[in-house]
Design brief:
The protein is mainly beta. It contains no helices and eight strands. A hairpin with a 3-residue loop joins strand 5 (50-55) and strand 6. InterPro entries: Ig-like_dom, Ig-like_dom_sf, Ig-like_fold, Ig/MHC_CS, Ig_I-set, Obscurin/Obscurin-like_Reg.
Length: 86
């Protein structure tokens, strides 16, 4: 299996409280496994507050819904040994 790398990393974002915010990270190969999103070192799951998806097979997205002050912190995307933070 080819080593999947991060082609385009996360970008720092400022958002108003109550708004949604989306983070995108592009990887080198489709169907990447061993992918993880974290907020403040806490692993995120796909649920009503966090929408995790993949567009066009290589663009991994995380949307945090109706963010609050408690959501301030570092977002991390990891694929295998590679990470990107914002």
């Amino acid at each position: 299996e080819p080593d999947v790398t991060i082609v385009s990393g996360l970008k720092d974002t400022v958002v108003a409280e109550g708004d949604d915010v989306t983070f995108r990270c592009q990887v080198s190969h489709e169907n990447a496994r061993d992918v993880e999103w974290k907020l403040q070192d806490v692993a995120l799951q796909n649920n009503e507050m966090n929408e995790i998806s993949v567009e066009k097979g290589r663009i991994h997205t995380l949307t945090l819904r109706k963010v609050t002050e408690q959501d301030i912190g570092t977002v991390t995307f990891r694929v295998g040994p590679h990470t990107s933070t914002a």
